[in-house]
Amino acid sequence: MHGLNALFNPEKVAVIGASRSPKKIGNAILHNLIRSRFPGKIIPVNPREEEIAGIKCYPSMTEVPFPVDLGIIVVPEKAVLSVAEDCGKAGCKALIVITAGFKETGSEGLRRERDLVSICRKYNMRMLGPNCVGLMDTHTPLNASFARGFPKEGNISFISQSGAMVLSILDWSFDLDLGFSRFISLGNKADLNEIDFIQSCIEDPYTRAIICYLEDVTDGKRFLEICSEAGRKKPIIVFKAGTSSAGARAASSHTGALAGSNRAYDTAFRQCGIMRAAEMNELFELAVAFAHQPLPQSERVAIITNAGGPAIIATDAVERYGLTISRFEKETIEKLRQNLPPESNFYNPVDVLGDAPEERYRLALETVFSDPNVDNVLVLLCPTAVTEPEETARTLLKIKEKYAEKTLFAVYMGGRTLEAGKKILTGSGIPTFSYPEPAARAVRGMVHFVRHVESSRRQETPVDPGPLDRGAVEEILEQAAADRRLVLLGHECSAVAQAYGIPVSPIILAESAEEAGEISEQIGFPVVLKISSPRISHKSDVGGVAVGLQNRSQVERTFQSMVDRVRRLLPEVPIYGVEVQKMVDSGTEVIIGMSRDVQFGPLIVFGLGGIYVNLLEDVSFRFASRLNTREAIEEMISETKAHTILRGYRGKKKGDIPALIDAVARVARLALDFEEITEMDLNPVRVFPRGLSALDIKITINREK
Amino acid sequence: MHGLNALFNPEKVAVIGASRSPKKIGNAILHNLIRSRFPGKIIPVNPREEEIAGIKCYPSMTEVPFPVDLGIIVVPEKAVLSVAEDCGKAGCKALIVITAGFKETGSEGLRRERDLVSICRKYNMRMLGPNCVGLMDTHTPLNASFARGFPKEGNISFISQSGAMVLSILDWSFDLDLGFSRFISLGNKADLNEIDFIQSCIEDPYTRAIICYLEDVTDGKRFLEICSEAGRKKPIIVFKAGTSSAGARAASSHTGALAGSNRAYDTAFRQCGIMRAAEMNELFELAVAFAHQPLPQSERVAIITNAGGPAIIATDAVERYGLTISRFEKETIEKLRQNLPPESNFYNPVDVLGDAPEERYRLALETVFSDPNVDNVLVLLCPTAVTEPEETARTLLKIKEKYAEKTLFAVYMGGRTLEAGKKILTGSGIPTFSYPEPAARAVRGMVHFVRHVESSRRQETPVDPGPLDRGAVEEILEQAAADRRLVLLGHECSAVAQAYGIPVSPIILAESAEEAGEISEQIGFPVVLKISSPRISHKSDVGGVAVGLQNRSQVERTFQSMVDRVRRLLPEVPIYGVEVQKMVDSGTEVIIGMSRDVQFGPLIVFGLGGIYVNLLEDVSFRFASRLNTREAIEEMISETKAHTILRGYRGKKKGDIPALIDAVARVARLALDFEEITEMDLNPVRVFPRGLSALDIKITINREK
Fold first, then answer.
1. How many CB pairs under 8 A join A and B?
2. B243, A354: Cβ pair inside 8 Å?
């Protein structure tokens, strides 16, 4: 990681393309470096200048007489490759390529970008960009960007695939008095990408929360691997743009990014414990909370308010986000009753009334914080004639200091009257909102992170599918490939599933009554007979289905009468024979499926099965690569309504969940072992009180192995 | 409505309890009246003063020598009744009672409130309050409240059940430079309530949009009646607090409001075309849009941006909210290509690039607005080194003037750098946001309103259930009431449904083989026989079910063998006989149900039926009172997945939707006709290609008629 260190903590930084002209980006970067009080050496490089801003200027990197750690390249795109080469020779460990005109412009640019990466590899340099705004680290301090201004020192790191978003968020940060640790503009991600920077921010001691604006993920499999570790260490909040099909078009036309499907990203983020912001503003709500507040001990919230309406809104939000309203101890209620006016509400939410001055908030907060059932407090304030927003703000800060392990969120519901009070709060790390909902959402986000960390620490049982017959599957897939088929035949699907220990209910075609009788004896009674014809879809309408056949002679007789009847009714239809299937008990029908995502690999689906799968959409998703414990699979199953049915719904018999976990694990294993399988559908899988059986299986393969 | 006119447009206003002391509310109100430049006469009333603020003061209302239109009462609660009496005598047409200490304080307060209403009735006065902040009308102008400040003149009316929310929103309005027509603080709603004020704001020529903060609705049935008309005339946006069970508790403890269930409110608002804000901030997003922008001609949106990331976010939001990205005409694209730099994006979203000055926005917006496929435009701006936020803002305003029929929304993504530009835009009626999502949401809200208005204009077919046998139902309900039963018996349910023309599949108990044979011949073959016993739940497990019986002798034989078999297997179980039911074709199983809401009356439910109703929750709701056309019922049905199945899903046969509409209408009629029916469940109702049949019906009644 020496390259990343050179990016954030260089000793000597060269600006190649530094300029005297205030209109040039090369000028902005140089002055940003100077103004940020970067403690190392700054080297402007420009063949036409002797000095810029009072600093000696070199004509080229090769003429700098000492090794340089970091080269920031702002020369025109045609000159970038040779400058990068020079940087390599000058011993640079890292580059920031600000210059645009690469992959995003078309095939020539793409070639240039590839050459640039080759040069980096050759000299063992890591690179940020090209086509980026640069980066900032407030703790070094270092402003290696052309953004206007430098953020306040703080604990949030922002990683952005959009340069504009860096500028916007920086601009907001001044309004909100929000501190940042790092700003990273990813640009084209030709070398370093979001995974590298997430990893680096996890290691950065100054970063407490990571927020990302992403349009795609460069390497889905590595993302899952690295970020599932990272997501347990620090809160990561991602806004993923390009969720819509139209949005994906905009993404690819703009950055040349290949946008994966929205569902795949959702699943990947979840499996990594990454919180996904639904809207831009949620990025901040959560970041601010994590940056300064302790992690909540529980989901129990107390509310203090000077007005009833806002308290109702806050209570609604607390419930909507799965938090709970604390029940106070008797002593708490008693103490509130002694100290507050008699018309106050002493229960949670505590109403200190519209005429509450600072003092009443102090009394209420002190009392509520000292209650052992309270771990998070929302303080709501509406501007009335006697409100003291600033004094109250200072009081909140002072009391909060005494309760380091509890969280405090302020909701100042108003505009100009409350401005100064809001500034006092946010400037000192109390997340302050204009409405109650985002405050509750922030607590929910924090609780969610705590639970993820906890769950990742629990003991888990790795899935062990035992010995599998890989060879049998290979053989079938090879045969299909040889036949240039993209879909496996029914009996092939059965055989593949059986090779991986997935219980199936095989369907065997009998061409004569005798054969049907024989097959029945082999598979065991009772059996079902169904007429086999490509032209008959509603078999029971023509008497083409017989269930519950108990012995050989019954099977043989039924075969004959069924074939005769159908021939008589539909003389022109070809009949292949009769399908014999062991009769399957009734049970809950579920689906286990797999669809291979281009970014993240095989995506496993589980849910209610049958013909209404797509209509009811009672499904949950996981990537196979991280679906490696029984607990993880159980969690996946438990997210569906199918799970409610399997647990015994309305007097229905329970389903065998351990067997189901096993089957899901085997499907995941199969998908991981055979990359040529692109899709699988086991639907329905019937789950019995003991065991299960896949009644219908479809497997799609890819011709190129 | 003379009373309401006296509230908003009085000629003479008395402040009873006017005070010299700047700390008193009676002082604040007097000065608010004066400062608001109220053009009529102001009369302070206070027995201890000769004059206040240079205006002659009267000792009591009875001594005012001329008639007064509006009395504002701020005396202590004990004095309110006699003062109100005096106001009545002085000829007041309306009162605003600011004083608190009524219903919200307990039973004594409630009694006082009732007496206050009686006095109003006696003198034919209308009353706002008690326990409120007062009201404001910027067009009169009149500030009859104790809020700090007076809003800018504008087109939004705000009706609030929370006084604090009035103060908060007023405070925000100054920040946002947002104009209002009226502010109304409802207080306890002892006389006038939200319905009266919604009606009044619909008639107010200055009001273009109505926003409400509500904790409950006073008269649900009248609300449905009045607001379903109102919702077609002007956009009404409601934030309803108290959605959670915990929130409902907070509501009732605070204002004594009886909170109806969240679903009932949701349904009522929808049926009235009222938009429900999910979060507080949505109230403003929509209000601002409606106040100044024209109603959109379509849902087609164009986006102009100076950065790619925000364009993707905007495109995602446009799609998420069901809007569409306009496809430009060839000429538009050509014109953009001629006028913008070659690296720009000329398709929608139009990217004018990060270095775009005001001029480029002008060119782009002119061109895009002139495209006939564009009805709404979002302009996104990120703060880069060369952005001209203020010049651009002025340009947007200028161009917008030329396209009065198209909407324009600005998204200025940044803080202090863009502040001045934002002010220019919002001050002139261009809704300006900090993120793209709320802009798209605002367009969606407007499109939604336009569609509601359109749909309410279309020709509808009233439902006509034809002659119904009310007498039969009355008899059954009387019998049940006489028996002190709360649940109707199975055959009673069947009879009720049949009396209202709802097709049922009757179940008839046969106690002997002969009887079973006779019944079968009456109802027609094939029939199903089921053993009837209160102790056997899985009838088929004991051979207690026989299907497809084709003739009388088969029925009689089966009766005997079934009873014998079950007696043998379960000798200790009582057997009532055998239930005979005509065999019902397979079909889609749906539920039609009714639950009587205390506020809004009978709530009809439709959805996927069977045992998984509550699990799958594929249901839609409507109040019976407004479910009076075939189109309304069809719309209700079409919101469910059951509808997809009924339309013929995956080769399944279609269901008879006209028959279903008819059945829903009859259930609604039954619920409206018989108030003592509190709940009904027709589940499953099996819908066939022709006709339908209710297989199981449950009806719960109320003992008091």
1. 238
2. no
| Structural domains in chain A, sorted by start | 2-289 (3.40.50.261), 294-457 (3.40.50.261), 506-582 (3.30.1490.20), 588-701 (3.30.470.20)
Q: By CA distance, what is A436's nearest residue in B?
A: B280
Task: Check CB contact under 8 Å for B415 and A384.
Answer: no
Which residues of chain A neighbour B435 with C-beta distances below 8 Å? 279-281
The two three-digit tokens of residue B680, written as one number: 């009904």
Partners of residue A163 in chain B, C-beta under 8 Å: 307, 309, 354
- Which 3 state secondary structure label does DSSP give B464? coil
CB contact under 8 A, B244 and A320: yes
Rounded to the nearest angstrom, the minimum Cα separation between B79 and chain A is: 20
Q: Please, what is the angle between helix B280-292 and helix B436-457, to 10°?
A: 70
Handedness of CA B7, B13, B19, B22 (dihedral sign): positive
In this predicted complex, what is the ipTM? Answer: 0.87
CA torsion sign for A268, A270, A272, A274 is positive
C-alpha closest to that of A510 among A457, A560, A465, A452? A560
Q: How far apart are CA A396 and CA A366, in angstroms?
A: 9
Nearest CA in chain A to B615: A641
pLDDT recorded at residue B2 = 55
Below-50 pLDDT ranges, chain A: 1, 246-260, 705
Residue A94 β-bridge partners: A70, A126
Question: Are A313 and B244 in contact (CB < 8 Å)?
Answer: no
Quick check: A162 and B307 CB within 8 A? Answer: yes
In the numeric block, which tokens belong to residue B358? 């005001």
Element (H, E) at B97: strand B94-97
User: Of B354, B416, B611, which has the smallest distance from its Cβ to A174's Cβ?
Assistant: B416
Pick among A168, A321, A683 to test the B interface (most B CBs inside 10 A) = A168
Pairwise CA distance, residues A448 & A286, whole Å: 11
Q: List, in order, residues 6 or more apart from A649 with CB less than 8 Å away.
A: B611, B612, B615
Q: What is the pTM of this model?
A: 0.89
CB contact under 8 A, A316 and B253: no
Contact A212, A158 (CB under 8 A): yes
CB B518 within 8 A of CB B495: no
C-alpha span between B424 and B392 (Å, rounded): 10
Q: Hey, what's the torsion of the CAs at B127, B131, B133, B137, to 10 degrees?
A: -10
Residue A179 corresponds to which amino acid? G
Measured distance CA(A337)–CA(A358) in Å, rounded: 17
The string of pLDDT tens digits covering residues B396-416 is 999 999 999 999 999 999 988
Q: What is the pLDDT of residues B448-472, one digit of tens each?
A: 999 999 988 888 888 887 789 999 9
Q: Which helix (H) or strand (E) holds A195?
A: helix A194-203
CB within 8 Å: B315 and A160? no
pLDDT tens for B4-44 read 899 999 999 999 999 999 889 999 999 999 999 999 999 99
CB nearest to B280's CB, from A242, A313, A318: A313
Cβ neighbours around B172 below 10 Å, total: 20
Q: Which of B29, B276, B312 would you mutate first to test chain A, the one with the most A CBs within 10 A?
A: B312
Tell if the CB–CB gap between B385 and A160 is shorter than 8 Å.
no
Asked whether the CA dihedral B210, B212, B217, B220 is positive or negative, the reply is positive
Which residue of B148, B168, B545 to mutate against A (max A Cβ within 10 Å)? B168
The C-alpha of B383 sits at a distance from chain A's nearest C-alpha, in angstroms, of 6
**How many residues in total does chain B contain?**
705
User: Residues 6 or more apart from B564 whose CB is under 8 A from it?
Assistant: none
Are B213 and B162 in contact by the 8 Å Cβ rule? The answer is: yes
Q: What does residue A159 show for φ and ψ, rounded to 5 degrees?
A: -110, 120
